[in-house]
Write a structure and sequence with these properties.
Mean pLDDT: 89
Structural class: mainly beta
Shape: elongated
Radius of gyration: 28 Å
Largest sheet: 12 strands, antiparallel
Distance between the termini: 7 Å
Helix content: 10-25%
């Protein structure tokens, strides 16, 4: 009998030397024989892949550097709306007692992110918070809310320019003067400031059907700026005083909502509900920010043990196709997704890693000329886990982007050959290194 360790080592050497992709060993030819051994490597792509959709009850949105603002209508997910809430601080309260305010405005620094149509006129409504930003668990979520004045302090319309530097929103002088004069007369620290000015919220207009735009929350990019002068015999110089977003992680969050989704998604009343793709027109759903995710299972993977002889899985790749009509220039596809494991309650329990770092689902082309793309997903480590898991656990894979809590990108995964010409496949290379008679 040939030593198993030597055979497997020979496999890895031969396969790796023939491949420029060292992330995971590629699929091999069916029935490939190795010289001077009884080892066979077979390629199998007939395992069932089960796709279901679920929705996270909530996502933490207070730990990002992005203000996410805007609203648009989506044919699948309904009305997508993001508003932002934040508390303001200053690093210096040293203002001359004779200072006189000239004007005040909100500077919003673009951070290059956008989703949907930026050629339409968008609206920003600025409201003053009527309660403090406080949280019992040191976090705010996409479902959180803080009370604010129903009447906007200012309303501003603009055409988004995500690649520009910043947007300037003029604020009413009486609003600015009330805050400024109180700071001059009474305030010399941020604790006292928050008592008289709890913060603001930026809201899109209820009628907007435009886009969602990203702005930076960093102090050098986004701030309220007061312009003031100090009278003197020789004239007066213009000075500035800034209030910026408190850098404390729980002092700013985005509320990201979707209402009136299509009928396929109405049943997702809590995080433990799973909708199998065969009941949702052979589509499974993902959207960052709002909490929708696709759950991926391989219910027949243990059928490998029905193959005669002893063996081992050398590679395992999942090919998952986005619905072609679901991504456009204004609804771009995400090119890289991290791979996580969720338990039976759809709680994230683990992240899939390689020996050299994170594993990613990345876009590949089936036919680049016709833009036929799919996600190529290395799942060898997860498949190994499922083959030898004891007891068997009802866990699954999900895919999440880097900014899952600070974006509204969507993916519709197609799971049928009839409508897309390409179906989801798990492709494994399986090495049989010991026959039953050995």
């Amino acid at each position: 009998m040939i030593n198993k360790c030597i055979i497997i080592s020979l496999f890895l050497t031969l396969i790796t030397s023939c491949s420029s992709d060292t992330q995971e060993i590629p699929t091999l030819v069916v029935g490939q024989e190795f010289t001077n051994s009884e080892v066979r490597v077979i390629s199998i792509d007939t395992f069932d892949v089960e796709l279901t959709t679920f929705k996270f009850d909530s996502i933490i949105t207070s730990n990002t550097n992005r203000i996410l603002l805007g609203q648009y209508e989506d044919a699948y997910f309904g009305r997508i709306r993001s508003s932002s809430f934040f508390e303001l601080n200053s690093s210096n309260f040293n203002i001359d007692d004779d200072a006189v305010i000239d004007s005040v405005g909100l500077v919003l620094g673009y951070d290059k992110y956008f989703y949907n149509d930026t050629t339409k006129l968008s609206t920003i409504e600025i409201h003053v918070l009527t309660d403090f930003l406080k949280s019992d668990d040191d976090a705010f979520y996409n479902t959180s809310n803080v009370p604010y004045s129903p009447t906007p302090t200012a309303t501003f319309q603009y055409y988004p320019e995500p690649n520009a530097d910043s947007l300037y929103v003029s604020l009413p002088l009486n609003f600015g003067n009330n805050i400024f004069q109180t700071i001059v007369d009474e305030i010399d620290n941020n604790e006292d400031l928050v008592q008289i000015f709890k913060g603001i919220t930026l809201q899109p207009n209820e009628q907007d059907d435009t886009s969602v735009i990203g702005f930076s929350k960093l102090k050098e990019k986004t701030y309220i700026r007061f312009y003031y002068t100090i009278p003197s015999e020789n004239g007066s110089d213009v000075h500035t005083f800034d209030l910026y977003i408190n850098p404390n992680p729980i002092s700013c969050f985005n509320k990201i909502q979707n209402t009136e989704p299509n009928s396929n998604l109405i049943a997702l009343s809590n995080q433990e509900v799973n909708l199998i793709s065969t009941s949702t027109n052979n589509i499974s759903y993902f959207q960052s920010g709002t909490g929708y995710a696709t759950r991926i299972r391989f219910p027949t993977i243990r059928d490998l043990f029905n193959i005669t002889g002893k063996g081992t899985v050398l590679s395992a790749k999942l090919q998952l196709k986005p619905k072609k009509s679901s991504y456009t220039d204004i609804l771009p596809i995400i090119d890289s997704l991290s791979i996580f494991v969720v338990d039976q309650n759809n709680i994230v329990s683990d992240q899939i890693l390689h020996s050299y770092g994170q594993a990613y689902a990345k876009i590949s082309y089936n036919n680049e000329e016709f833009d036929e793309i799919y996600y190529n997903i290395p799942v060898l480590r997860y498949i190994d886990r499922k083959l030898y898991q004891s007891p068997i656990v009802d866990d699954a894979l999900i895919l999440l982007p880097k900014n899952n809590n600070a974006s509204v990108d969507r993916i519709l995964f197609a799971n049928t050959l009839l409508t897309e010409g390409f179906t989801t496949k798990l492709i494994t290379a399986y090495a049989i290194y010991e026959n039953e008679e050995d």
